[in-house]
Amino acid sequence: MTTLTDNPQAEDSMSAEPKPSSTGEQIHPLPTMLDGWLATHEPDLVAVRRYLHQHPELSGCEHGTTDLMVQNLEAAGLKPRRIPGGNGIMCDIGDGDGGRIVALRADMDALPIDDPKDVPYRSTVPGACHACGHDVHTTILLGVGQVLAELDRAGQLPGRVRLVFQPSEEKFPSGAPVMMRAGALDDVSSIFAFHCDPRLPAGRIGVRSGPLTAASDMLEVRLTGRGGHTSRPHLTTDLVHALSRVVVDVPALLDRRIDPRTGVALVFGAIQAGSAANAIPQEGIVRGTLRMLDRDAWKTLPDLVTQIIEDVVRPTGAEAHIDYTRGVPPVINDRVATAVLAGAASAALGESAVVETPVSMGGEDFSWYLEQVPGAMARLGVGRPGESLDLHQGDFDVDEKAIGHGVRVMVHTALAACASAAF
Length: 423
Description:
alpha+beta; Alpha-Beta Plaits; eight-stranded mixed beta sheet; four-stranded antiparallel beta sheet
């Protein structure tokens, strides 16, 4: 496992005694430096998080959030660059080593749900809420950028780090490909990110090598046919019966047509057909999601699912119109990158803080970056004592001590990845 002390330069920065930097300043060991920095700046970061929580912006509309990040990054002496469209940022710190760049990513968008919480920082925007912790991700990356800017000025940043503030994680098509087209991965050797986890208490970091989240696609099947009276179903195309066959038979047949180790799950969440008990409708729709843990299976699934649906519908006499929408591939954490992140978390918070996290069948568009470069996502514990909350609920909230923990871990991760010969 690679940690900050696995190389001479990192070990130097962790040594017990302060020493002069290349600019002549006294540089303290990294944990001591972070203790002092957070003692001064953590209240400001909490205030930023609360402001973002009060002023959530939905996918594609993150202009105010972008403006606030640009303002704070420029105040730290950095030079953030907006992407075309103005609702995303890239910001490089340090001179780099042979062009190698370590990227750190945060997503900025909120969810289209109401915020029922009785807190001073409750959302002021009807129908919008940071119910997934993206306000925390964004605040942490800002804090990391501010710390790295100080280390760079003191000559203590052993490489080049790129901050990636991404829009539109919560919708299809998502924002990661937009950032990549804008150059987010240009010259990047590795990339790292957090996702809030209310199941873990603040101060814990969940890591996992290999599959972390599932691929997630959307499926809509619209059936059409001749309607009529329920007393004469033989003269109609019984669409309600045909829809039920799609809902019941297609998932069962899919399970027999694909390797069970791929973790494929087709689940329908909506079915709409008719309104009268004695009338067979002429049109009906079912909608659902497909999730899977295997990248190769994800690539082949659209053709297979389409074939199975057509085979199931054909005997009913209905006509099937299939809309298969690509979502995101699975997050597959790189083994070495996961070790770097786990080692950095251990150095930042202690060995007991690092735990293995289970696979999630949720989708995460961080996966698009991992299709191009090695990297890893970790679960950031944000759970508060005595609470049992989940993501994507309006009453979701966090233990704000997690912000400081996140800054510590991601600063250690950036330095360890910069110094690692593995990327």
